[in-house]
Amino acid sequence: MPATKPAKLPLAISTLYAELLDLSEDDYLLGYAAGSYVSKNIKGKAYWYYQQTVGKERQQKYLGPETPELLDEIKSRKSKQMDRRKELSRRKEICQALTAGARIRMDSTTARILKALAEAGAYAAGAVLIGSHAYGIYPAMLGRKFSAANLRTGDVDFAAIHIAVSEPVSFAEVITTAEKNMLLVPPAPHAKISTKLKMRGADYRIELLTPAHGNQKKPIVLNNLKFGAQPLPYLDFLIEDPVDAVAPVDVGIRVKVPAPEKYALHKLIVAQARETSQFAKREKDLAQAMELLSILQTDLPAELSQAWDNLVDRGPDYSAKAITSLDQLGIAPPT
């Protein structure tokens, strides 16, 4: 099966992603909403608050009673806020250019949920966006125009491992606050905890996954995200050392995704691990892997070779499946 390399984006478009990535570097600290300063008069005395809209909720942070020092601080913050507004306006222009040039599409519900998770610090707490929604970011990241068929998305999948964090994030609470129609899916009969959310009246799901250890199948609780995660084989390879990325929608949403070379090789593995009834998903796995490999072999050969060595080091259960897929695609293993 010959690999057709996706066409390069015009240089003026492909360089915009790097700018967007740089501009979004402080999003974890500054947030996406500019906010406003409001005062309340209580028993004749003024008290100041910083007001923001996060998701669909209005939030107020208490700053203190009015003093000359606080008023000077608010004035200084407003000046910085003007710079932030200009920056966000520039980022919106970049996102519009990238989505048009790279044929990137993301529905408004997914964009709103990714943004809410970013604002809550979920990616800093260990969440990694995986699956086709992560794949949809790679065209902008790699400066290529991918096949529209490979960019079709369905459910939204995240993965994480347990890590120690100073401020855990409630994964499910953030999502249900951002989208009121999202509901917890009841646990499976063999499990005690939920790992999924579903939109009321629609075929739209969000699932949290985690690497399986041995024959582990029952969901576990990830304290850093305060939610259940379904163990899945081979996921350890995919989400080891995820990279910072920006989904180019709205003003750009800062997320974590697997490195593209690991995504490609992981798809080779899972294609062979799927059951016969999942033929369509298997074909999509192979198509995405082939598309990415056709780029990585020339654009990022060192990174691809290193990822392949990492995969091989994990043992024959990983490498044999990947080699079988490569044989089916008519592609030699990376060197």
Description of the structure:
This protein has 335 residues and is of the alpha+beta class. The protein folds into 2 domains: 258 residues, no CATH class; 77 residues. It is built from 12 helices and 14 strands. Strands 5, 7, 8, 9, 10, 11 and 12 form a 7-stranded mixed β-sheet that branches. Strands 2-3-4 form a 3-stranded antiparallel β-sheet, with helices on one face. Strands 1-6 form a two-stranded antiparallel sheet. A hairpin with a 5-residue loop joins strand 13 and strand 14. The two termini are 20 Å apart.
Could you give the topology of this structure?
Elements: E1 7-8, H1 11-23, H2 27-30, E2 36-42, E3 45-54, E4 57-65, H3 68-102, H4 108-120, E5 128-130, H5 131-135, H6 138-142, E6 144-145, E7 156-159, H7 171-178, E8 182-184, E9 196-199, E10 205-211, E11 220-222, E12 227-232, H8 235-239, E13 243-247, E14 253-257, H9 260-273, H10 279-299, H11 301-313, H12 316-329
Parallel strand pairs: 7-10, 10-12
Antiparallel strand pairs: 1-6, 2-3, 3-4, 5-7, 8-9, 9-10, 11-12, 13-14
Helix pairs in contact: 1-3, 4-7, 9-10, 9-12
Provide the structure class: alpha+beta
- The percent of residues in helical segments reads 40-55%
Please report the number of helical segments.
12
N to C succession of SSEs: EHHEEEHHEHHEEHEEEEEHEEHHHH
Total strands: 14
Low-confidence stretches: none
The tally of domains stands at 2
The radius of gyration over CA amounts to: 22 Å
Distance between the termini: 20 Å
**Major beta sheet, specifics?**
7 strands, mixed
- Shape from CA axes? globular
Q: Average the pLDDT over all residues and give the rounded result.
A: 91
- Report the β-strand fraction as a percent range: 15-25%
